[in-house]
Amino acid sequence: MEILILGIIFGLLIRYTNLNRFNVISGDATLEDFTVAKTILLVIGIGAILVSIEIALGLASYHVKPFILGGIIFGGIIFGIGMAILGYCPGTLPISMGEGSIDAFIGLLGGLVGGFVFTWLFPVIKPILGPNFGAISLNSLTKSKPILFFILVIFISVVFIALAFFLHRIEKKTIKNRILNYRWVITGVGIAILNGIVFLKAVSNRPIGASTSYPYFADFLTNFTKNSYFEKIKVPGHWELIFLTGAFLASFILALIKREFKLKAVYSHWEKAKGPSVSKRLIWAFLAGFLLLFGARMAGGCTSGHIISGGMQLAVSSLVFGLFVFIAFIITGKLFYKK
User: Fold this and answer.
1) What is the mean pLDDT of residues 197-224?
2) Does the pLDDT at position 63 exceed 90?
3) Which listed residue, 2, 177, 212, 225, has the most CB atoms within 10 A of its CB?
4) Tell me: the pLDDT tens digits for 101-150?
5) How much is the pLDDT for 178?
6) Number of Cβ within a 10 Å radius of residue 204
7) Could you give the number of structural domains in the chain?
8) What residues does 75 pair with on adjacent strands?
9) Considering only CA atoms, which of 308, 323, 321, 314 is closest in space to residue 152?
């Protein structure tokens, strides 16, 4: 029940700023909407200070993902391509489904297939994902110098927060015909605090994540559970599945209350570049969902579990993953949505 409630809060925070919407995420890929980018930067900036204090007080632990070079780079590129085309990430797919987004549902199906295929190919792929440089973070690099560590944490956090507001300023000056607000600030602060709560040993002793639930659920549905990869992911996968169920329920109930639930497959940003064909959109959604989850599993995480949660821990693997995701995301957005 506790995990479900955390997921409900996550879903409400995402919906408050419409971070789950196709137009918002794909708009970020074409540099027409910076809501996603500035919110993520703010979450990492605030969250890095919060988590560092929690860990220093012994209230939480580090959960840094290993820096597996091939998986991080190639997984990041594949994930960025999938996210730009799909217009959703693993954590926002169920939230948009709760609003009636058909393309999100098809993308989720593609993600389940991608997760299943990764499980199936894992024994073959595993040797080529490396080399593994281990769990590297700012903490491990400054292990014997706590004062230096906290000075750098504060400095890096201020830079991330400043970049978030800098993007907002650019957006205000360059993007016309849009009414900007500061809802993203409330969502950013809220997600940072929520993740800080999830990190606590007394709560979940883990970070927020989403993509592990896809291969977990796909393997469970197909009874493909007698393999080493399922054994590796079954605990976090189960947690994330309940968490995302809470996010879906929050979105669905809110959509019903506000009378916003509507079955829809093609949104304006897609239609302007690709036309109104529903079948075309759904085919691309399935393929992109497959890429999104396959890339996430190669890298060992996604937007929430790697970029945000890992970024809050100032993990090298997560920051490098985020960089390659961003590069692929922007390049794909500019090429794929070219009118």
Assistant:
1) 96
2) yes
3) 212
4) 999 999 999 999 999 999 999 999 988 898 999 999 999 999 879 999 99
5) 65
6) 17
7) 1
8) none
9) 314
Q: Residues 248, 11: contact at Cβ < 8 Å?
A: yes
Q: Distances in Å between the alpha carbon of 311 and those of 79, 83, 221?
A: 17, 19, 32
Question: pTM of this prediction?
Answer: 0.94
Within a 10 A sphere around the Cβ of 329, how many other Cβ atoms?
Answer: 26
DSSP state at residue 306: I
pLDDT computed for residue 49 by the predictor: 97
Residues 288, 279: Cα–Cα separation, whole Å:
14
* pLDDT tens digits, one per residue of 300-333: 999 999 999 999 999 999 999 999 999 999 999 9
Distance CA 120, CA 106 (A): 21
Which token pair is 126?
């595993």
**Residue-number span of the structural domain to which 221 is assigned:** 2-336
How far CA 154 is from CA of 45, 50, 197, 222, 270, in Å, comes to 9, 10, 20, 47, 40
- Cβ–Cβ under 8 Å, residues 98 and 105: no
**Is residue 54 exposed (0-12), middle (13-18) or buried (19+ Cβ within 10 Å)?**
middle
The rounded radius of gyration (Å) of the Cα atoms in the chain is: 19
**Amino acid in position 81:** I
Beta-carbon-side half-sphere exposure of residue 55 (alpha carbons within 13 Å): 22
Q: Classify residue 208 as exposed, middle or buried by CB count within 10 Å of its CB (0-12, 13-18, 19+).
A: buried
Give residue 261's identity as a one-letter amino acid code.
F
Is residue 202 packed enough to be buried (19+ CB in 10 Å), middle (13-18) or exposed (0-12)?
exposed
